[in-house]
């Protein structure tokens, strides 16, 4: 079997799940991450015969993809802000929108070398570790309620060679954060159960619901708690950065205002209300 034949097979068997260009990208990721091919290899090896092992790897991946399993869980890798992160079923797959949040923080603090930062609900550690890689003198703390997620976060810290502190903790059970911080950042669960019908099956059936969903009757429970904790834990000129539910920016502003914060909402590249910056008023 040649790569061209595999491409046709992937297109035929995945067309009900993904658009054509996305299937092409998925196969490219599989070839790069599991066959150790370069991008140019993927472009020029169309007519070469695959080895038995290569063909088996691609066929096995296709069977998993047909179950809606995300390609990142198949390869065990996700790319975020120029780094490669390990992922598994206990962690969300890092999103492009979250890269924009990281970029905002780095640009806001480009003149500062030392910052004490906590990343609440860290998952893979992609936010905190990307900040640490960009600003090596910063002190980074990664917090998560999931012990399995923190194992992956620590693995990623070791891979990127960025020393960090980790805390296993349910933020909703906290009365205060352990230190004062220059930056508090969080991408907490914010998708309401009523929004599940908008979620692609590969997310809904495979990514951890603990990190995704909140109850419809109290969708901003994590934000209320984090804002209250930030009241005490932010240094005088500290900033709280949040990734938010695109449908609830005004509700978010109201909570922030009630807790003594001036807030500003920013849109992502898709035009959705996605990021929020809060400072004490």
TrEMBL record:
Gene Ontology molecular function: any one: methyltransferase activity
GO biological process: methylation
Protein's recorded name: peptide chain release factor N(5)-glutamine methyltransferase
Protein EC: 2.1.1.297
Domain spans labelled Release factor glutamine methyltransferase N-terminal: 12-76
Keywords: Methyltransferase, S-adenosyl-L-methionine, Transferase
Taxonomy of the source species: Bacteria, Pseudomonadati, Bacteroidota, Flavobacteriia, Flavobacteriales
Enzyme's top EC category: transferase
Source organism of this protein record: Nonlabens dokdonensis
InterPro entries: DNA_methylase_N6_adenine_CS, HemK-like, N5-glutamine_MTase, PrmC_N, RF_methyltr_PrmC, SAM-dependent_MTases_sf, Small_mtfrase_dom
Stretches assigned to the Methyltransferase small domain: 112-204
Signal peptide from the UniProt entry: none
């Amino acid at each position: 079997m040649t790569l061209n034949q595999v491409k046709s097979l992937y297109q035929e068997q995945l067309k009900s799940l993904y658009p054509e260009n996305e299937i092409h990208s998925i196969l490219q990721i599989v070839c790069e991450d599991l066959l150790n091919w370069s991008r140019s290899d993927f472009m020029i090896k169309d007519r070469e015969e695959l080895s038995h092992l290569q063909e088996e790897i691609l066929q096995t991946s296709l069977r998993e993809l047909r179950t809606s399993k995300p390609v990142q869980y198949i390869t065990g890798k996700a790319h975020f802000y120029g780094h490669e992160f390990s992922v598994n079923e206990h962690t969300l797959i890092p999103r492009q929108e979250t890269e924009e949040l990281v970029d905002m923080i780095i640009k806001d603090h480009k003149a500062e070398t030392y910052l004490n930062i906590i990343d609440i609900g860290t998952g893979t550690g992609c936010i905190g570790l990307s900040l640490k890689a960009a600003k090596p003198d910063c002190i980074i703390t990664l917090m998560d309620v999931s012990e399995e997620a923190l194992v992956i976060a620590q693995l990623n810290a070791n891979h990127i060679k960025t020393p960090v502190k980790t805390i296993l903790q349910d933020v909703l059970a906290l009365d205060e954060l352990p230190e004062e911080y220059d930056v508090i950042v969080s991408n907490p669960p914010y998708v309401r159960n009523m929004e599940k019908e908008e979620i692609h099956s590969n997310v809904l059936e495979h990514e951890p619901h603990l990190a995704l969903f909140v109850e419809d009757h109290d969708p901003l429970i994590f934000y209320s708690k984090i804002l209250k904790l930030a009241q005490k834990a932010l240094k005088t000129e500290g900033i709280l950065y949040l990734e938010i539910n695109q449908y609830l920016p005004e509700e978010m502003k109201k909570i922030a205002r009630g807790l003594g914060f001036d807030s500003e909402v920013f849109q992502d590249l898709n035009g959705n209300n996605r990021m929020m910056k809060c400072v004490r008023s």
